[in-house]
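task queued by scheduler; priority normal; single chain, no ligands, no partner chains; default sampling; output format set to C-alpha cells
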Amino acid sequence: MRKPIIAGNWKMFKTVTEAATLVREVRSDLDAVGEVECVLCPPFTSLSVVAELVKGTGLRVGAQNMHWEDQGAFTGEVSPLMVKELCQYVIIGHSERRQYFGETDESVNRKVKAALKHGLIPIVCVGENLTQNEAGLTDSVVSGQVRAALADLAAAQVSGLVIAYEPIWAIGTGKAATGNLANRTIGTAVRGTINQLYGAHAAQSVRIQYGGSVSPDNISEFMSQPEIDGALVGGASLVAAKFVPIVRQAAASKRR
C-alpha cells in the first residue's frame, strides 16, 4: 500500500516571517492527518525556520531545487550537502525550472543522482505542454522524460522516489486535468514506463503525484484514482484554509 503524499510547493512566495506564520497555522492540523505524508517546500531562505517549526511532528520539509555538485564556484546555487541538513525531500525538474532556467533532461538526471547519493528523496517532475498535449504527444513526451530522469538508476532507488506528473498547461492556469485523464497518463506513461525499465515491484512501489491547479474542490477526484498517490500543490498550499482541507480530503479519499 503506497502512503499518500501531499507536497506544498510555495514557489517564490513567503518571506521568512510569513513562512513561519503559515507553518504555525497549519502544523497541528496537518500533523493530525497521519494517513498522509505532508511535505512543505518553502523557498531556500525559509528552509531553516520551517525545519525548526516542524520538529517533533510528522511533517516533512522539501527544497524546491538544488545543484548536482557538492560544492564549488557556482554563485547563487545551493548544494545537496546544504539541503540535506534541513530537508528530507527535494523537487527536481519542475517545469518552471525547465522553462525559465534552462534545465534539461540531462541536468535533471544529474540532480536525481546527487539527491539519492546524499539520502534525499527526489520529487521528480514530468509533464507535457499544451502544444504537445493537443498534438497527441503526451505519452511519448512524459515517457521520455521519465526515462531520461531515471537513467542509470537501480530498481531499488526508483522504488523510493516520488514522481509528480504535472501537465504544464494546467499549472497555475486554473485548468486542471480530469481525474480519469491524469490517472491514464500516470498509469501508462509514468508507471508503465517504470514497469518496462525496472520491473513490476519498482513500478508498484513508486509514489506518483498529480500537480496542476489542485484545489479543495478537485483533490478528491484525483485521489480517488488508483494510480494517483498524492498531489504537488502550488498556489493552494500558500493558504491554510485551502491546504489543510486538501490534505484531509486526500486522506478521506484513500480510506474509501
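post-processing summary
- The beta strands are 5-9, 37-41, 60-63, 89-92, 121-126, 162-165, 207-211, 230-233.
- The chain has a mean pLDDT of 96.
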